[in-house]
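Researcher: Go.
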Amino acid sequence: MKHRIHILALGLGLSVLALPAHAACYADYKAKKDNPLKLHYGVIKLPNSACSSASTAANAIAPRLAAAGWTLLNIVSLFNENGLDGRRANAGPYFLRF
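Model: Structure:
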């Protein structure tokens, strides 16, 4: 019986440690449109699988922007939900739009 309690406690402890890995992932980016030239800064939510690097984030973001006629210029940074409030005003209408 003690072994079951220890195994249960260990499993619960490991699941709590895994929670941060499932936290939401976001990126801020810069994009453009041509003719006439338009630029925007935006914030986008990404699947966790796209958060391992800027290049994997770019692969996830570029098609979403392209569907609306935008070209991804660069990824500024990757961050979790703690960074959202500080970027909301700067992103304006492009905050979590795509």
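Model: The helical segments are 2-18, 54-66, 84-91.
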